[in-house]
Amino acid sequence: MFAKILVALDISDHSKEVFNKALSLAQKYEAELHLIHVLSAEEETSPIPIPVNLDEVYPAMGNELTIELWQEQWDKFEKRGLDLLQARNEEAREAGVQSSFEQVLGSPGKTICKTAKEQGTDVIVVGHRGRWGLSEILLGSVSNYVFHHSPCSVLVVPTPDL
After folding, report:
1. pTM for the whole structure
2. Keywords, A to Z (predicted)?
3. What residue ranges of the chain have pLDDT lower than 70?
4. Are strands 4-8 and 123-128 parallel, antiparallel or unpaired?
5. Domain of 141?
6. Any idea what the CATH number is for the domain that residue 76 is in?
7. How many domains is the chain partitioned into structurally?
């Protein structure tokens, strides 16, 4: 039924549950697992984007120092993403599942759907944070975007407290 499973991970507590659901599917169907983390300012744990003209707002800060500090934070964010992917990839392999991973920069929903199409994915496993109503309209929802634009089936794993 499923030969290729794409699992979208972020740096959150819920990410482990999303991975576990994808791993159990991969084991059940003897499917390949591909893990993806999309680097984006939209992710809750990403560094806050800095305005281009920050020195006009806060002259004492200076743009160079601010950009340097932001770059350090972004590098740490990138490393946390890679560490997560490597750990989950190893976990999948230890469970006997063929697994690969990638970390890319982009808009999460669009990037996940594009990757699924390029790889011939049968199902995407993605988490849902629990944004509903106005907050979902204003802030968006990766799972909602993927659900409506995916080239394949989508399994949405809700947070446990929903």
Report:
1. 0.85
2. Cytoplasm
3. 49-63, 65, 130-140, 161-162
4. parallel
5. 4-158
6. 3.40.50.620
7. 1
